[in-house]
Amino acid sequence: MSFTPPVNAIGYLLRHGVRLDDINSQGEFEEASPDLLDAILGGAADFARDVIAPTNWDGDQHPATLKDGDVTASPGFKDAYAQFVEGGWQTVSLPSEIGGMGLPSAVSVATNEMIYAANMALGLCPMLTSSAIKAIETHASETLKDTYLPKMLAGEWTGAMCLTEPQAGSDLGPVRTKAEDRGDGTYAITGQKIYITWGDHDCADNIVHLVLARLPDSPEGSRGISLFLCPKYLVGDDGSLGERNDFRAIGLEHKLGIHGSPTCVMEFDGATGYLVGEVDRGLASMFVMMNEARLFVGVQGVAIGERAYQAALHYAHERVQGVPPGHEPGAPIIDHPDVRRMLIDMKAKLMGARTICFATAEAADLGDLAREGLLTPIAKAFGSDTGVDVASIAVQVHGGMGFVEETGAAQHYRDSRIAPIYEGTNGIQAIDLIGRKLRRDGGEAMRALISDLREAVTSVKDASGRDDVDLSVCAAAVERGLETLATATDIVLNATEVDALGVATTYLELCGKIVGGSLLAKAVARGLLAGDPQSAAMASLARYHALRIMPTADGLLESIRAGADAVYDFPRDQLADL
Amino acid sequence: MSFTPPVNAIGYLLRHGVRLDDINSQGEFEEASPDLLDAILGGAADFARDVIAPTNWDGDQHPATLKDGDVTASPGFKDAYAQFVEGGWQTVSLPSEIGGMGLPSAVSVATNEMIYAANMALGLCPMLTSSAIKAIETHASETLKDTYLPKMLAGEWTGAMCLTEPQAGSDLGPVRTKAEDRGDGTYAITGQKIYITWGDHDCADNIVHLVLARLPDSPEGSRGISLFLCPKYLVGDDGSLGERNDFRAIGLEHKLGIHGSPTCVMEFDGATGYLVGEVDRGLASMFVMMNEARLFVGVQGVAIGERAYQAALHYAHERVQGVPPGHEPGAPIIDHPDVRRMLIDMKAKLMGARTICFATAEAADLGDLAREGLLTPIAKAFGSDTGVDVASIAVQVHGGMGFVEETGAAQHYRDSRIAPIYEGTNGIQAIDLIGRKLRRDGGEAMRALISDLREAVTSVKDASGRDDVDLSVCAAAVERGLETLATATDIVLNATEVDALGVATTYLELCGKIVGGSLLAKAVARGLLAGDPQSAAMASLARYHALRIMPTADGLLESIRAGADAVYDFPRDQLADL
Q1: pTM (2 decimals)?
Q2: Measured between CB atoms, does B422 come within 8 Å of chain A?
Q3: N vs C: which end of chain A shows fewer Cβ within 10 Å?
Q4: Do B501 and A338 touch (CB under 8 A)?
Q5: A529 touches B: beta carbon within 8 Å
Q6: pLDDT at A1 over 80
Q7: Is the confidence at residue A98, as pLDDT, over 80?
Q8: B164 interaction partners in chain A (CB closer than 8 Å)
Q9: How does DSSP classify residue A281?
Q10: Which of B170, B257, B337 comes nearest A564 by C-beta?
């Protein structure tokens, strides 16, 4: 169960799907020169393949264990994580002022995809550290920053997010964990948190928890929640580790997948916490990391899909069964048209979702908040749904072997299923898309995106024919797809709230198909115009997307026209049975 | 994790989706009077809910175990199976001449759905017995029939199918298991079989294996394989059980799902076997049970989807999170439009797939072999794909709880994933559909189906408006859908072999959506005309299907137009990376 990341395909999209020149010319980032990019992508690919990927199966088969409040990670994880720290992989996209490599987010989308694909469960740990760093950097006091950030940047200390409670999941308003001001600059945190990813483990010297809790005199609901930093081990003024803080893992969830990621129930028993940001503004402080975390969950979907795809491809090359038409006996199943279709379908779907992730990072790097905000829920939901879809097809390519755990295909299928759920379910993403991102600004950000993509049609037409590469079907599909998207957008903008909510998920799926296919065609056009020799193969992927994926958006538009009436038509009290 | 089958909805489709009068008037079956139907469906629902369903979670958590060649089934299975035998549930659709209840297959589709939903892993055991009975009844000698059938009909002895070997799965041609004629009317069977469902267990006194093997002088490939009956315990002339036969389970697979179903590696070491049917015609003898087994796998998809749906519905009624628009705080998540959409989407998809299963059984009951043959691959593949789709949505409704195993939603998701794989992968079904069922007869059977469904549009229009129930959107969607289906059919009929194979799966999906939606509308029209008071609710399901599911077939048609060129366009040697 080895894994080699498709570094050329990822690099192609990074070079031609992202306006790196514009990002570089801003001066905010370290210059992402072609040579540096090649070195970073190649290094990440080697690291993912050689160090991280070999731990994946062990993590699945031997989940983390909990004993006396201490969690021990899966076999091999501690060593692999130590090499992650040593390689400085935590710092790729962190600003150089605070010790990061200072590269654009788009580059870390590429490197993180490879690491998530190698071991999604392990990759979650640095993802959470990165989110915690963002929150601390933006909202914490200078003292807290000085004390915690250097170790976290290095990856020596990891981060964890303590948000969810049994009654407070998608809606964090009902958080009940208490914080009491001790009057000495610290707070006593008491309560129980669930679903705490990497809430405890033995891979790092310290774990920095960011905890949502409520002060005694704070208002009810989401405007009365504050954010606190609770380190596993208290830190002295000289940076030395002191005594254990008063919170512990008291349970580990038995999950469908990502077994290697310890999902903890955490009990806070008067733990020492430090306020981060303003009192009662905890949820707002969390928002700063929300976009990034959501984007990276979308990247996880693509990543796990890619790993599943590579496994299916490998199997299809090895397995002999029946004689494919036009072939001799002994030809592998990849030569059966339906198997070949499954493979190219997976690859095209992944590439479409990947372009959306890159475009989201590009918007963040360019400081285009409206575009970033608009694309983030699409990247998260469409990327994660694509991961599940592709992982399921990969099981299918394996036939009976796909259902047997030892093959490994089933693990990817199980692992992939979390991404549509955490960091805001995909239903929440769809509501965010049609509400905050679309209807709140009257569709301005979406119209700007459509307009940009319409302009891209011109470049697709210009590039078509160059080096004998035909993109005419792409130009036609993008033009038609953007019409469909514009029509769907108008419907959602003019709908009642309930109608809009009733079609939100369908609208998001439509966006994912059209935007992904359009961005892919646009990237290929740029690559062709730049003379990139890999453009011919990429063009055929874009054509597949244009011919077989984008057209399915039309049916979704019909479904959107139906509104919520169709949803509410059936009597609620007969849903169990007539 | 209780489960109550939706007996009213299933009964509605059985009454109005199946021409029971025509089946009854044939005289081949016991009269399926309304009262008898009610009694059977009610009894099956009670049995599924009270006896079988409580074993489901234990089966998942405590798979069967193997010790010294003997398999012990999951806790509770032996008792539950004993009650299955006692209730005579094995015999529902078996002919009365051989001791069955003699009811139409359509009725056993209904009762089996409930049993599969209650515990799919356990339900597989009688399904295999049923298939083995069919093969023995059709092809075995009178002596074998007299010896084995009575006990199998009672369910006291179960059946198992030993087909697959490591190199012979979808293609059984390369079967290598040997059979040697002992000259005394028996054969010595030697070889290894894998993926043998319920190949050994302790729930029955004897297990009757049907084994594919090759005689020494038989030709290579699929025309040199014979079928043998190998009982676990040899049976004396007086019907008494004798010594253990020379084959054993030597391994159990560790699978993604259906943990309660022992999937055995069976080692035959000169086991005693009896020829069933003619020498070298073993595969043909297997075909007799193929249609039935494939239909019932489609039913399993619907069944596991229904169980997952019911669990999601229950959770959606209980869980409070956020305040749904237009509701007071404390309203459960079912009142969020996107959750309500997920629920009705699941229900409508299940109902569409269920109508196809019933129509397939109806064709079998009416002796319409062409129709049965055409619908079987659609029932199998579309039913099983629907099961996976619905089980995944059900996980999503549960949010984070869906990813935690103890909730049970994850089990349905895992269990459902086998149905698209076994009894011929869904890719094989699609190839069967476009090859043997469509192109071989020049599209005659499909045109007959389309023609029948077009006639149904008239009845849908006639019924619309009755009792204030509007079916006009259904009539329009069915008309348009049948146009789409006819166009797609012409494309596939006129395509090259490779083009047809490259779009086979897409064509099958299109068929499933259009045929399912059309049959559903037709059943509702019949129910309305018959004055069934449940028709109003069913009509709203049909409208949802017409508005939000059938229109997605248009995009599939576009994809079919693209043919296999799009599939083969991307260079094979760059599939791993550019």
Answers
A1: 0.97
A2: yes
A3: N
A4: yes
A5: no
A6: no
A7: no
A8: 400
A9: B
A10: B337
> Which structural domain, as residue segments, surrounds residue A261?
157-281
pLDDT at residue A288 is higher than 80: no
Contact B9 A342 (CB under 8 A): no
Which pairing describes strands A178-181 and A157-162: parallel, antiparallel, or unpaired?
A: unpaired
pLDDT (mean) for B91-109: 87
CA nearest neighbour of B484 among B455, B517, B437 = B517
* Residues making up chain A, counted from first to last: 578
Residues in chain B: 578
Containing B244, the helix (H) or strand (E) segment is strand B241-244
A201 at B interface, C-beta within 8 A? no
Question: Is the residue at B306 inside a domain?
Answer: no
Give me A62's structure tokens. 């031997």
B574 touches chain A (CB under 8 A): yes
Residues A108 and A172 in one domain: no
Alpha helix segments (H runs only) across B319-468:
337-365, 369-397, 400-403, 409-416, 426-432, 444-463
CATH code assigned at B180: 2.40.110.20
A247, HSE (Cβ side, Cα atoms, 13 Å): 32
CA B335 to chain A, closest CA, distance in angstroms equals 9
Spatial distance between the Cα atoms of B248 and B67, rounded to a whole number of angstroms: 11
The structure tokens listed for A73 are 């990670």
| 3-class secondary structure, B332 | strand
3-state secondary structure B271-292: EEEEEECCCCEHHHHHHHHHHH
Determine the residue of chain A that is closest to B385 in CA distance: A392
Catalytic residue numbers of A read 423
A167 and A271 inside one domain: yes
Boundary residue ending a domain (A139, A167, A199) = A139
What is the CATH classification number for the domain harbouring B55? Answer: 1.10.540.10
Contact check, Cβ <8 Å, B547/A566: yes
Residues A552 and A449 in one domain: yes
Q: Do B337 and A574 touch (CB under 8 A)?
A: no
Residues 137-196 of A with CB under 8 A from B: 164, 167, 169-171, 173, 195
A531: its two tokens = 């003379």
- Yes or no, beta carbons of A505 and B322 under 8 Å apart: no
Q: Are residues B90 and B211 in the same domain?
A: no
Q: Residue A49 domain-assigned?
A: yes
Would you call B504 and A571 a contact, using CB atoms and an 8 Å cutoff?
no
Distance CA B258, CA B256 (A): 7
Q: Taking CB atoms and an 8 Å cutoff, what residues of chain A touch B392?
A: 388, 417
Predicted confidence (pLDDT) at residue B439 exceeds the cutoff of 80: yes
Beta bridge partners, B162, equal B211
- Using a 10 angstrom Cβ sphere, with 0-12 exposed, 13-18 middle and 19 or more buried, the burial of residue B103 is buried
* Residue B447 within any structural domain of the chain: yes
Counted across chains A and B, CB pairs separated by less than 8 A come out at: 282
Average of per-residue pLDDT across B521-544: 97
Asked whether residue A172 falls in the same domain as residue A84, the answer is no
Q: Which of B79, B112, B139 is the last residue of a domain?
A: B139
- Measured between beta carbons, the chain B residues lying within 8 angstroms of A574 are 537
Q: How close is the nearest chain B Cα to the Cα of A567, in Å? A: 5
Domains in chain A, number = 3
Residue A12 phi/psi, 5-degree rounding, is -60, -50
The reply to whether A322 falls in a domain is no
B134 and B162 in a common domain: no
- C-alpha span between B112 and B124 (Å, rounded): 10
What token pair was written down for A3? 């894994």
Model confidence at A263, pLDDT cuts 50, 70, 90, reads very high
* Residues B135 and B11 placed together within one structural domain of the fold: yes
Q: Ramachandran region of residue A252, left (φ > 0), alpha (ψ -120 to 50) or beta?
A: beta
Residue B52: how many other CB atoms lie within 10 Å:
26
Q: Write the DSSP symbol of residue B320.
A: B
Q: Are residues A134 and A166 in the same domain?
A: no
